[in-house]
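Q: Structure tokens for this one, please.
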Amino acid sequence: HALRLLNLRSAARSIEGAGPGPEGNITKLKLAEHFQEQGAIAAALVGPDLVLEGGEGQLAAMAAMGARGMAIAGGTSEVARNQIAERILGMPRDPLIR
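A: Here is the predicted structure, written as tokens:
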């Protein structure tokens, strides 16, 4: 329910003509984590059949591998965490590595 409310809040902000808020970063991060957990559970349930082409194993493989792609798409989860920390929580930026 929380992700649904964040999406509704983001849509309302867009309708009002306001710029993007923090909802997108939070939603992306939580969905990526959820899909990774779901993929890991599917892989554990299917077991070695995960590598076989066709059937239940193929669906579980798509879930497991798709979760990794979701975590990378639109920026890694680490980048999303940094943006949430800086923009929402007001924490200082990470020091630049030289």
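A few notes: The longest helix spans residues 23-46. The mean pLDDT is 82.
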